[in-house]
């Protein structure tokens, strides 16, 4: 393999640093401003205080919206884990007419603009099904794109593993249930957890689809942040909530990356 010159390496590293700065400098400013004593968030900060953190911890609206987002995220993730896993097994383990078309249709919702998905779901729920927008419609709306995350994770794991381990289990006399419980599930556990974490994270911060599928009685945390962003009295609290979400977002991504490896390589 042809070696890369030092100049090329330095150039690539320079572009990497620039890219990382563009990505993470705004996020670092959000965290910094959460301690800013000024309401205007001028830079450099006029002083540092924990007053906004205390106000955020006591904000009933933010805490209620947080609880709603968590429950909706868990419900949508549970639906996505069941349907996404079943779909991945069907596409990867069986051969049938239209299999590739089904795979494309399953991935399509994540590629569509959120506003298109939101409009389509809103019209379906209200005009065709006659449903009242609320908690259930938000969960279904979030599940439509969370399924894609789980499907992609599980299908990728199944593709890497193949069927050798399951065939060996069957050759040794194990029943289909025993094979699934003692062979397939342990090998798939990491992909399921990683897919669930990413699906929950995607549902938790979704705002476009939520706007079209939530009624006036449902307010998730992203909607609460957007509604209070331009209110002078709430702006510092919103900034603290954004800082907390920025720091908390590291956890599911890190766990998903840790758990997304190939377990077969450790057997």
Description:
This protein has a single domain, classed as MetI-like fold (Orthogonal Bundle), CATH 1.10.3720.10. The protein has twelve helices and no strands. The protein has helices spanning about 5-35, 50-55, 60-95, 100-110, 115-130, 135-160, 165-170, 175-205, 210-215, 220-230, 235-250, 250-260. It is globular, with a radius of gyration of 23 Å. The model has no long low-confidence stretch (mean pLDDT about 85).
- The CATH class assignment is Mainly Alpha
As a whole number of angstroms, the C-alpha radius of gyration is 23 Å
* β-strand amount: under 5%
Averaged pLDDT, please? 83
Gap between N and C termini? 31 Å
Compact description:
The chain is mainly α. It is built from 12 helices and no strands.
Keywords:
267 residues, 75% helix, mainly alpha, MetI-like fold
Write the layout of secondary structure elements.
Elements: H1 6-33, H2 51-57, H3 60-93, H4 99-111, H5 114-128, H6 135-161, H7 164-171, H8 176-204, H9 208-213, H10 221-228, H11 235-248, H12 250-259
Helix pairs in contact: 1-11, 2-11, 3-6, 3-8, 3-10, 4-6, 6-8, 7-8, 8-12
């Amino acid at each position: 393999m042809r070696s890369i010159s030092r100049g090329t390496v330095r150039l690539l590293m320079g572009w990497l640093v620039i890219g990382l700065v563009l990505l993470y400098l705004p996020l670092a400013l959000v965290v910094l401003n959460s301690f800013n004593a000024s309401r205007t968030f001028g830079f450099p900060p006029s002083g540092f205080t924990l007053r906004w953190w205390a106000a955020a911890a006591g904000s009933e609206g933010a805490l209620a919206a947080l609880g709603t987002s968590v429950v909706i995220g868990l419900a949508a993730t549970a639906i996505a884990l069941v349907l996404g896993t079943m779909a991945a097994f069907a596409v990867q383990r069986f051969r049938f007419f239209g299999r590739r078309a089904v795979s494309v249709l399953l991935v399509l919702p994540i590629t569509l603009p959120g506003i298109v998905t939101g409009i389509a779901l809103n019209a379906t729920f209200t005009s065709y099904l006659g449903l009242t927008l609320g908690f259930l419609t938000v969960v279904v709306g979030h599940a439509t794109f969370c399924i894609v995350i789980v499907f992609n994770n599980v299908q990728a794991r199944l593709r890497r593993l193949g069927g050798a381990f399951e065939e060996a289990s069957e050759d040794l006399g194990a029943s289909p249930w025993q094979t699934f419980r003692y062979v397939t599930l342990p090998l798939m556990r990491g992909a399921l957890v990683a897919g669930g974490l990413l699906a929950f994270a995607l549902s938790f911060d979704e705002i476009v689809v939520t706007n079209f599928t939530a009624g006036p009685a449902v307010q998730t945390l992203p909607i609460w942040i957007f509604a209070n962003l331009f209110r002078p009295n709430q702006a510092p609290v919103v900034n603290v909530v954004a800082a907390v979400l920025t720091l908390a977002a590291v956890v599911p991504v890190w766990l998903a990356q840790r758990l997304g490896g190939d377990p077969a390589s450790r057997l």
